[in-house]
Amino acid sequence: MSVDILHTIVCVAALTLVCAGLAKLRDPTPAERALRAQRIAIPRGSGRVVGAVEIAVGVTALTAATPTTAFVVGVVYAAFAAFVARAARRGTPCGCLGASPRAADPLQAVVDLAFAGAAFASAANDPLSLLDLARTATNGALYLALVALGTALAMQAIGPLGELRGLARPEARA
After folding, report:
1. At what angle do helices 3-26 and 140-158 cross, to 10 degrees?
2. What CA–CA distance (Å, rounded) separates 155 from 163?
3. Ordered mean pLDDT values, 10 residues apiece, the chain (174 residues)
4. Residue 54 CB partners (closer than 8 Å, separation 6+)
5. Domain map of the chain by residue range?
6. What is d(CA 164, CA 113) in angstroms, rounded to the nearest whole number?
7. Single pTM value for the model
């Protein structure tokens, strides 16, 4: 895999973190419910703290890419993968992108693991920021549009696509 593609995947992961964080700042309740459903004792307002951390990690990875920031993105997504896998096993929502009554889907954990792996690999390969990558691209505007598209697709895999996949399951119709 090309190193630029690897760093691009990390940029998509970081921008997805920012979007998920913004959703939690807007409405922290789904994230808080998801944490409590996993028997994690948290105070009220913790969903906003999680969202702020997601935004901080994502923005830092997008603007000041270093091996450390890429590693932190990897750790965050590895933790998300474990959380989502546990929520999927228990049949509870993950609260990743806002309110959804659907249980977490294993596809979400797969996406999280892919992002974690790319971030860890990027950390070992001198990561580049989103702007650095756009500057070196043949067409910077097209590159930024493709990162935005990748982020939208990742968010679909984490959120609404999981809901659509659930419609095909017999337990979803009952």
Report:
1. 60
2. 12
3. 78 93 90 89 89 96 93 96 93 79 83 95 89 81 84 76 45 42
4. 17, 18, 20, 21, 24, 76
5. 3-162
6. 21
7. 0.84
